[in-house]
Amino acid sequence: DAGVTQSPTHLIKTRGQHVTLRCSPISGHKSVSWYQQVLGQGPQFIFQYYEKEERGRGNFPDRFSARQFPNYSSELNVNALLLGDSALYLCASSRIRDRAAYEQYFGPGTRLTVT
Amino acid sequence: GEDVEQSLFLSVREGDSSVINCTYTDSSSTYLYWYKQEPGAGLQLLTYIFSNMDMKQDQRLTVLLNKKDKHLSLRIADTQTGDSAIYFCAELVLAGNMLTFGGGTRLMVKP
Q1: pLDDT tens for the 111 residues of chain B, in order
Q2: Which residues sit opposite A10 in a β-bridge?
Q3: B55 touches chain A (CB under 8 A)
Q4: Residues β-bridged to residue A45
Q5: Contacts of B44 in chain A (CB under 8 A)
Q6: Distance from CA of A90 to the nearest CA of B (A)
Q7: Which of A38, A55, A57 is nearest to A46 (CA)?
Q8: Are the Cβ atoms of A97 and B104 closer than 8 angstroms?
Q9: CA-to-CA distance for A40 and B69, rounded, in angstroms?
């Protein structure tokens, strides 16, 4: 079975631009979470979506938004990009949400560079 | 400060055991995880432990949990050069259903 897939793998944007990152979860997984990993640090939670609804949000500004589609794939959108948004953006999928989505599997990430 | 803390670096010789340590602060944690990240790659789930367990063994990996001290460790037996990577400890916080990660421990295995 295919793992979590993300696109694109790399992206270079200019300050002030907008970016859309995409994620397809493992088949059968209905929950998708997004994390930001700045170089040299651990991942930071941005959002969790389950059954197309936002179920959790981390401490990120409103410039960050996401959505989940009927096929459980997801998009992360970031508006008005800042240099500090440069990071590896990771998507994780899990089978269930309630009673702990205890097995979260990560994709390879999208490396975003803002210049 | 971070809710999950790890030492930055560990160096071992091939064939030795490696022990990577982690402390966490959220007493409501239900699951605690170890992930491995190789250069330029995503996170690979290695193992996890439920908070009512003290120990879990999975092939070369042994996880020990001390709930009183909020201390988690990962022991890798017979460490190989392919084990060189960054290892992240994480706790599942039910409120928000999110993983909170430590800063990672870089493991270097010398031949």
Answers
A1: 448 999 999 999 999 999 999 999 877 777 899 999 998 889 999 999 988 889 999 999 999 999 889 999 999 999 999 999 999 999 987 666 789 999 999 999 999
A2: A111
A3: no
A4: A35
A5: 106
A6: 7
A7: A57
A8: no
A9: 27
